[in-house]
Specification:
339 residues; mainly beta; Jelly Rolls; 7-stranded antiparallel beta sheet; 9% helix; globular
């Protein structure tokens, strides 16, 4: 998914943050995905209080939306650098198309993980048969030694297993004797957990990981801290089980985690880099491809002969793309690194 925030720029990180509680509750902000009938996402990462959970650097949560009212998801071709995108659906279907040549419909219970390397582009459109759209889009920052690697795409249907009273799908990493084959470049966890009413679940988790709990439906208590729907609850590395509890209603959540990245990143729009200058370079490269593609598309309209469009650094644009998203203007001040 593209970050279509009209002002994707500066989130200043405090140099000396106060000591974290066992659980910190991060509340979302609403971000429209462009246009007067746009669907709106709830963004909980990044924000002023926290930029990263392990290598997870971006969390958007959306729906359930009536597509007849919201218009569904219509995100034209857009770029990514130095990251992996993770798509997880609760309801509905989305067509993913990228500059590797991948064309695939994303369905509930399946994870799509796209690795950008130094640059990739993709589009996402809800399918005509989708009436309700509900899911999450997350990003994982690539470590320095892998962020200029190859573009890749992986899809995995995570099996549902019963752990205590809960239904669990582990789509990234390892949890409760379940292992996902999907490859990430940093130690990473991703799982969907569905809890019935009046239940309690304790999970042994990696004590070196930071963990985040995105509440889709709830409420749910995490280590005794209340999490309402759309909240993201953060726990620092801790040698203790992670405990979940429900009361009158059940809950559904996404559990994410990973080893602290240990690197500073600069993140703006759909780009992750290591310096302000690198982000400027990414933007310039993308804008040049946008201009070239617009000229090629105009010529194709006149001749009626649309073809795939090769780029210098973002792969080959599919022939079905009639437009791609230009980057917004950069802020007037330098972008700061996040730790």
């Amino acid at each position: 998914m593209s970050n279509l925030d009209r002002d994707p720029g500066l989130l200043l990180v405090e140099e000396d943050a106060p000591p974290a509680r066992r659980i910190d509750v991060l509340t979302p902000r609403d971000v429209p995905l462009g246009g007067p009938r746009a669907m709106t996402v709830r963004r909980t990462l990044p924000q002023r209080e926290r930029s990263l959970i392990g290598a997870w650097c971006f969390v958007d949560h959306y729906g359930p939306d009536d597509v007849s009212l919201s218009g569904g998801m219509r995100v034209d071709g857009h770029p990514h650098t130095s990251l992996q995108t993770v798509t997880w659906m609760f309801e509905g279907e989305v067509e993913h198309r990228d500059t590797l040549g991948t064309v695939l419909t994303i369905r509930p219970g399946e994870v799509n993980l796209m690795t950008s390397g130094s640059g990739i582009a993709h589009s996402e459109y809800s399918t005509p048969s989708t009436t309700r759209l509900h899911g999450a889009q997350l990003w994982i920052a690539l470590p320095e030694d892998q962020r200029s690697g190859q573009r890749t795409f992986q899809n995995y249907a995570a099996p549902q297993v019963r752990i205590g009273d809960a239904d669990v799908r582990v789509f990234l990493g390892d949890l409760a004797d379940q292992r996902s084959p999907v490859h990430t470049w940093t130690p990473t966890l991703g799982a969907e957990i569905v809890l019935p009413p009046h239940s309690r679940l304790e999970l042994e988790v990696d004590p070196t990981f930071e963990h985040g709990v995105l509440v889709d439906a709830g409420p749910v208590w995490v280590d005794g801290e209340l999490g309402e729907p759309a909240h993201l609850l953060y726990r620092a590395p801790l040698a203790a089980p992670l405990a979940f509890e429900t009361r009158e209603s059940g809950a559904r959540l996404l559990l994410i985690g990973g080893e602290p990245l240990g690197e500073s990143i600069v993140m703006w729009w759909n780009f992750i880099g290591r310096s302000h200058e690198e982000i400027v370079s990414f933007r310039d490269d993308w804008q040049a491809e946008v201009a070239r593609h617009a000229a090629a598309t105009s010529a194709a309209i006149q001749t009626g002969d649309a073809e795939a469009f090769p780029t210098e650094g973002f792969g080959e644009f599919p022939s079905t793309w009639t437009r791609v998203l230009p980057a917004p203007e950069l802020p007037s001040v330098r972008l700061r690194a996040r730790r």
